[in-house]
Amino acid sequence: MKLVAEISMYPLKEQYIKPIQEFIDRLNTYESIKVVTTATSTTISGEYLPTMQLLAEEMQHSHQKIGQAIFVCKFLNGDKMSTEI
Fold it and tell me: Is 32:25 a contact under the CB 8 Å cutoff?
């Protein structure tokens, strides 16, 4: 089963751009997922369980490194976001 996750990160510190960029850069090191970044969020897609696991690991890494940060995530099962309803 495939998964698409849209993620926005909000570090609770004044210097917030560097931790966001580091999070995105780490996501881009995984060959098993597709990563698309826009001005307000990053969308990743891949196999469901491995994608959820790597996302959990990277979020934990960010929390351990920078402290408080909010992650807003949307999850959709499937291999792409659909504009059709």
Answer: no
What's the CA gap between 26 and 28, in Å, rounded? 5
Between the alpha carbon of residue 29 and those of residues 32, 33, 58, 65, 78, the distances in Å are 9, 9, 11, 18, 22
Residues 32-67 have pLDDT tens digits of 999 999 999 999 999 999 999 999 999 999 999 999
Look up residue 37 and give its amino acid.
T
Evaluate if pTM is beyond 0.85: yes
Which of 32, 20, 29 has the alpha carbon at shortest distance from 72? 20
Q: What string of DSSP letters covers 24-57?
A: HHHHTT-TTSEEEE-SS-EEEEEEHHHHHHHHHH
